[in-house]
């Protein structure tokens, strides 16, 4: 049974860092593009970042470029989102999601992702 489990969320002060993890079971991440999304209260879900099946290509929302880094460890079947210089506007529930298609070296948060985790809360506040 395919399952994505996020962890690593929490409360952090502005300027701080967190590392989110997305652990996959029931699938092999070599065959899946993974995306990170977030949804703040009263706002639509937005794509934050994605990493291609082979891990060689990444993409970021403009709002997080230079602050967030996505990485993929296929051996551990886990994807990470390192978040630095966090701002209050980064506060949201963060979800990871998976999709498989023909693109091995490209990813987009605009694709229709098939599998979703349950989310982890990130709160940036002093």
Ordered list of secondary-structure elements with their pairings:
Elements (H helix, E strand, L loop, with lengths): L2 E5 L2 E3 L5 E8 L7 E7 L6 E6 L6 E3 L7 E6 L4 E6 L8 E8 L15 E2 L3 E5 L2
Query: Could you say which structural class the secondary elements and strand pairing correspond to?
Result: mainly beta
* N-to-C span: 40 Å
How many helix segments? 0
Overall average residue pLDDT = 95
Low-confidence stretches are: none
- Rounded to an integer, what's the Rg over CA atoms? 14 Å
Tell me roughly what share of residues is in helical segments: under 10%
Number of strands: 11
How much of the sequence lies in strands comes to over 45%
From the spread of the alpha carbons, the general shape counts as: globular
Q: Biggest sheet, open or closed, and with what strands and sense?
A: 7 strands, mixed
Essential attributes:
mainly beta
Structural commentary:
The protein contains no helices and eleven strands. The N and C termini lie far apart (40 Å). A hairpin with a 6-residue loop joins β5 and β6 (58-60). The strands form two sheets. Strands 2, 4, 5, 6, 9, 10 and 11 form a seven-stranded mixed β-sheet that branches. Strands 1-3-8-7 form a four-stranded antiparallel β-sheet, with no helix packed on it. The protein is globular and about 40 Å long. With 126 residues, the chain is mainly β. It has strands at residues 3-7, 10-12, 18-25, 33-39, 46-51, 58-60, 68-73, 78-83, 92-99, 115-116, 120-124.
């Amino acid at each position: 049974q395919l399952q994505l489990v996020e962890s690593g969320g929490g409360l952090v002060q502005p300027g701080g860092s967190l590392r989110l993890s997305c652990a996959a079971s029931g699938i092999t991440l070599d065959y899946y593009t993974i995306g990170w999304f977030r949804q703040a209260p009263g706002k639509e879900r937005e794509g934050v970042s994605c990493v291609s099946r082979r891990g060689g290509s990444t993409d970021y929302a403009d709002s997080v470029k230079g602050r967030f880094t996505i990485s993929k460890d296929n051996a551990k079947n886990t994807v990470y989102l390192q978040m630095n210089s966090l701002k209050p506007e980064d506060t949201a529930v963060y979800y990871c999601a998976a999709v498989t298609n023909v693109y091995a070296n490209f990813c987009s948060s605009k694709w229709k992702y098939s599998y979703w985790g349950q989310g982890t809360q990130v709160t940036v506040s002093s």
